[in-house]
Amino acid sequence: MMEKILTISIAAYNAELDIKRCLDSFISTNVLEELELIVVNDGSKDNTLNVAKQYEKKYPGIIKVIDKKNGGHGSTINASIKEATGKYYKIVDSDDWIDPEELEKLVFWLRNNDADLVLTPYKCVNADKIEDFELIYPYDAMMEIKKITNIEKKSNIIVYMHSTTFKKEVIKRMGPIIDENCFYVDLEYTIFPLYYIKNFVCLDYIVYQYLLGTDEQSMNIKNMIKRRNQHLKVVTRIINYYSDKKRTLKEPVQEIILNRIHSAILSQYKIYANMEPKESIAEVKKFDMWLKQFPELYTGAQGRFMKIIYLNRATRFMFYAPIIRILKIMHLEPKI
């Protein structure tokens, strides 16, 4: 049996309509024997398990199914980390897929090189019009492609879940510590391993195809409002993690983590802003008061909407409700 170069963790919950497209995108590659596809059935109530089992039977030694009770995305990551045997580890959601030719390029590079963190661009695909897409790059134009860089060197990179591929040893050292029964844990998954990496590389292979615009998606604003306390739980944990580890982190790593934390903080304020002001005012004030104990985070998030937050801090949120109402009337609610 060939050495497994890349383990793919696929979280599947009620995914019988999507999982075939996801798995078929891997099966059509020329590097299938070098892949380990771990499908974690997270207590699905539909036919997901049977579909995944059929693929497991057809592709033994390549596809492995873990069947467990429902525990959320974090629990599927934790479960697959324990089982992963590939040289590298990557997450792909069951409603997303990969570009086979781009994956082949990535696997070839992973087979012949060593870097703790591999960053690749990804494609955001519109669910309503599949030919509409946007490319997201986790690095700026100044980064040198295919050059392995020491993590202590200052660089402009962003660790999006869809862009990251970690060395298995890094993930194993982190361990199965992702929060369970909680959405938005991709923030934890991309931040926690950074404590253990020594270098990274930027590649230009557009591997991940990320589906956007479905009603079920966790990033749908209605779902984010409904699950805002889960988002807050994750924001709280990554802030506490950074606070605990800061003194042992090199400055460039601190900056990478701060970038993600500032974005998460901004998203939390935006979630509140998309609610009715009378419902959100107490929550936003409580969050703002808690955040104040971390000065560099309290004033670190930027953007046009944060200027509204900074203004409200100066007035003790006296004008928060009328400002949010005006934004709603003008259909200018902040997008996440």
Can you lay out the helices and strands and say which pair or pack?
Layout: E1 6-12, H1 19-27, E2 35-42, H2 48-58, E3 63-68, H3 73-83, E4 88-91, E5 97-98, H4 100-112, E6 117-119, E7 122-126, E8 133-136, E9 149-150, E10 164-167, H5 168-174, H6 186-191, E11 199-202, E12 208-212, H7 221-226, H8 228-245, H9 251-273, H10 277-291, H11 295-298, H12 304-314, H13 320-329
Structural commentary:
The longest helix is centred in the C-terminal third of the chain and has 23 residues, at 251-273. The chain is 43% helix and 16% strand. It folds into 2 domains: 6-212, Spore Coat Polysaccharide Biosynthesis Protein SpsA, Chain A, CATH 3.90.550.10; 221-329. The chain is built from 13 helices and 12 strands. It is α/β, with parallel strands linked by helices. α8 (228-245) runs antiparallel to α9 (251-273). Strands 3-2-1-4-10-6-11-9 form an 8-stranded mixed β-sheet, with helices on both faces. The chain has a 4-stranded mixed β-sheet with strand order 5-12-7-8. The N and C termini lie far apart (45 Å).
Keywords:
globular, Spore Coat Polysaccharide Biosynthesis Protein SpsA, Chain A, 336 residues, alpha/beta, eight-stranded mixed sheet, 43% helix, 13 helices
Counting structural domains, the number is 2
Q: What shape does the CA trace take?
A: globular
What is the strand content? 15-25%
What structural class is derived from the secondary structure elements? alpha/beta
Q: Mean of the pLDDT scores?
A: 95
State the distance separating the first and last CA atoms: 45 Å
Q: What is the helix/strand order?
A: EHEHEHEEHEEEEEHHEEHHHHHHH
Q: Just give the CATH class of the largest domain.
A: Alpha Beta
How many beta-strand elements? 12
Strand order of the largest sheet: 3-2-1-4-10-6-11-9
Main sheet properties: 8 strands, mixed
CATH architecture of the largest domain: Alpha-Beta Complex
CATH superfamily of the largest domain: Spore Coat Polysaccharide Biosynthesis Protein SpsA, Chain A
Helix percent reads 40-55%
Keywords: Glycosyltransferase, Transferase
Protein name: Glycosyltransferase, group 2 family protein
InterPro entries: Glyco_trans_2-like, Nucleotide-diphossugar_trans
EC number: 2.4.-.-
